[in-house]
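During the reporting period the student researcher (J.K.) took over the structure-prediction task from the postdoctoral fellow and processed the backlog of single-chain submissions. One of the processed entries is reproduced below for the supervisory committee.
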Amino acid sequence: MKYKLFYMLLLIPILIFLLFGCSSHHDNNMMSNNTNTSFAALIFPANGTVDVSTASSVSLKFVTRMDTSSVMDNFHLAGGDGMHLWMDSVTHSGGMGNMSMEKMNHLMNWIDSIQIQGTFHWNSTMDSCEFIPSDSMLSNTDYMIFMDENNMMNRDGSMMGSNMNHHNNGYHQYHFKTGL
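J.K. obtained the following structure tokens:
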């Protein structure tokens, strides 16, 4: 009986670790459910995807009909060294939700200057769009999709970032890497 209790107590932490401690932070599906945001249901390329084609576009599927202008104004695709410097600056500033308005305005102007230009194509219900970069992305390069939910509205004019209790304060980053 004494040994049985010992083995059961030893087995419980191992089972907990196996069930909850072995998840991958990289989602290798090309399009996956997004659990980090309240407004976008699907994002392609999914966060953590590698070997993305340099000719790829970015697809977004929202949970509601969107105000297209507010999405296009608050969507940024950036890559390479400029993106890494921007991310380092955000990290050193304590994150987007923890900095002064002056610093945040500086960072938003900075990401505007390094973002990849392209064209949006929306479906007829305005709940999905595709962003097609004007030029091919560079091979073997890290990219980031950055979206500011706080300034995006749905088609009815309601702000999407109304729940500021999210861990990310309405700022969402999704990272992927292009292939060779």
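The committee noted the following: Helices lie at 2-20, 68-73, 80-92, 101-114.
J.K. will present the remaining backlog at the next meeting.
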